[in-house]
Amino acid sequence: MSGDDFTVRGGAADAAIHDKQTLAERMAGELRVPLVRLIDGTGGGGSVKQLEEFGRTYVPYNPGWDQVVANLGRIPVLSLALGPVAGLGAARLVTSHVSIMVKELSQVFIAGPAVVEAGMGESVGKEELGGWRVAASAGTVDLVAGTEEEAFALTRRVLSYLPQNAWQPPPVTPSADPADRTAPELRELVPRDRRRPYDMRRALDLVFDAGSVLELGRRFAPSVITALALLDGHPVAVLASDPRVYGGGMTAQGSDKLARFVDLAETFHLPVVHLVDQPGFVIGTAAERAGTIRRGARALAAVYQSTVPWASVLVRRVFGVAGAAHRPHDRYTFRVAWPSGDWGSLPIEGGLEVAFKRLLAEAGEDAAALKAEIAERLEAVRSPFRTAEAFLVEDIIDPADTRPLLTDWVKDAYAALQPGPRSTTRP
């Protein structure tokens, strides 16, 4: 553990302080134990007032940053913002696997309000500039606690899902939740009306060990759900979509969120469970300005580069390139579908008019009737059971049996784990 002392020059890492920070990074990395940073201050090189004292300026560098980056690939790194955090302190906060801040107590920004006003002419307060609402929505932090005590409790909880280091498998603990527990409620969870949303988080609660789901980054890119959870006491990385936000569609930010989370699973050998309801990339001018397809392709690359065991449950929609990211298709993965499964290049509702545009235009006044006739024909071949009969999906299951099937799979997944450092070290 390393900690800043805000009462000494605002927590700045000037003089020899940065040497202690570097020592903590090296000690944790070389002893292969998790590192928790308690960050409170700038963590940088101090005030410009010191230039007169030095009699010179200096070319900036980040002391010990090689150790900071190296640790991302070898040990769990958690950072807690416990006060105003700026500059190098903010960089240290986000260069971690999970970052946590405390409501109303901590703020995170590149530079504080005074520097922003002097440099940009913006007059803002600390909360407006980098309070928890801003930081959580931007994805700067992964978890927000109500108190320092809660932040420490969240830290312990996150570490309970992760191994001591990348050379070890995740810790398996006894579970009080029966592995063969079925969940009949799942049969009615997905509405028959494909346009209606539902509560995907309820599905997570019913599938995974009771009380074990810990969602990361809920306020950032909310159409993508990322969480840590347990299956019969085995830690897993959970991916899902929230159909209440953009219908669960993949955004540019959601692509970044997915890629970073898959990297975390890969680094610490967490098998991935993906509950899939993916209508595709969010489209439109805003999506194009955000570079959605480039960032989405990076997420797809992260999925394909992963080597951990992977299980996909096709809950409802699986469409387009974003839908193809539901698993790495180049290797064996466990995959099943619910009877509510619906898939293809485009949803029929959105693709029909494009595919039959000329034919509908030529129909004139009869276009509406022709459209209804075509939709009926296409609907007749939409059944997921037809797809299963062609072995284009491995099995259609009773949703109530999802947990027992996954708890059987996770034991085999853990037996196949190959611990050891990976090359992925992105924060």
TrEMBL record:
Q: Which PROSITE patterns match?
A: COA_CT_CTER
| Gene3D superfamilies, sorted | 2-enoyl-CoA Hydratase, Chain A, domain 1
SUPFAM superfamilies given in the database record = ClpP/crotonase (SSF52096)
Which GO MF terms are attached to this record?
Answer: propionyl-CoA carboxylase activity
Specify one Pfam family: Carboxyl_trans
- Family matches, as InterPro entries: AccD/PCCB, AcCoA_carboxyl_beta, ClpP/crotonase-like_dom_sf, COA_CT_C
> The CoA carboxyltransferase C-terminal domain covers which part of the protein?
178-427
Protein name in the entry: Propionyl-CoA carboxylase beta chain
Q: Which organism is it from?
A: Nonomuraea wenchangensis
